[in-house]
Amino acid sequence: MAEVASNGPTPASTTSSEPVPLDTIPVSPDGAVTDATNGATNGHSDGKIVTVFDDPANFNVKHALQNTWTLWFTKPPSGKQDWSELLKEVITFDSVEEFWGIYNNITPASELAQKSDYHLFKSGVRPEWEDPQNKHGGRWSCTFKSGKANDSTWLDVMLAAIGETLEDEGDNEVMGVVINIRRAFWRVGLWTRTAGQAPKKGSAAAEEGQDKELGKKRLEKIGKNFKNYLQLPETEQVEFSGHADSAHSGSSRAKAKFAV
């Protein structure tokens, strides 16, 4: 697991108060770009490694993430529309540089319209309960009954997700993170692959002797990490609920299974 620096580069385009069109984001520089961890020096005639922190416009190496991630956006409804019609895939990335190029050029969460959402999920996973990789999982969440969303809090959670610091190596639980903007509150969620249930008979986990209590402890540890990144006081809790329960109740506010 590797932490992602929280002081990413700020391209010149961010001096404008309006976000630039997504198709102009400098996701990768021109020319050959390789992982900065492999010692490659291609891209500059003198063989010098230039990272985005040296030159945000002409870097020749990038810092690869452990996973590929996709940013999704739910736009506010303009009438009677299904939620799936409002959900739009924005862009996919797999490096630190690409993340900052995107983050620095999209509308901050604090400026999103009511009933908007950002979803940052591992590539290949749709931010929906019905997705095969989500349907047996659940969600840690925290609701803030205050004014505008705190951009620093949302950024910290995203960095923790793409930096793989929310879970232990091998847990394979974190699917993505979400921020919901509503009229009276804003909410941050962390989606997991399982919901603390006992592994199915015949599965690899069952053969390894894992039980429901072990799964719950793993999720609780992730919940505590999530709470730390939200910078909540000990007296406040984050709650975990299963997607199946939410689907059955028809609401994302299903009764919590447990809290930390």
From TrEMBL:
Q: Which UniProt keywords apply?
A: Initiation factor, Protein biosynthesis, RNA-binding, Translation regulation
Recorded GO MF terms: RNA 7-methylguanosine cap binding; translation initiation factor activity
Which residues lie within the region annotated Disordered?
1-45, 240-260
Q: Which InterPro entries match?
A: TIF_eIF4e-like, TIF_eIF_4E, TIF_eIF_4E_CS
Keyword RNA-binding listed: yes
User: Which residue stretches does the UniProt record annotate as biased composition, category Polar residues?
Assistant: 7-18, 35-44
Q: Which GO terms describe its biological process?
A: regulation of translation
Any one GO cellular component localisation term in the record: eukaryotic translation initiation factor 4F complex
List compositional bias (Low complexity) regions by residue number. Answer: 241-252
What is one Pfam family matched by this protein?
IF4E
Function description = Recognizes and binds the 7-methylguanosine-containing mRNA cap during an early step in the initiation of protein synthesis and facilitates ribosome binding by inducing the unwinding of the mRNAs secondary structures.
**Subunit-level organization:** eIF4F is a multi-subunit complex, the composition of which varies with external and internal environmental conditions. It is composed of at least eIF4A, eIF4E and eIF4G. eIF4E is also known to interact with other partners.
Question: What PANTHER family does UniProt report for this protein, alphabetically?
Answer: EUKARYOTIC TRANSLATION INITIATION FACTOR 4E RELATED, EUKARYOTIC TRANSLATION INITIATION FACTOR 4E1-RELATED
Family of the protein in this entry: Belongs to the eukaryotic initiation factor 4E family.
Q: Give the protein name, as stated in the record.
A: Eukaryotic translation initiation factor 4E
- Give the species this sequence originates from: Oleoguttula mirabilis
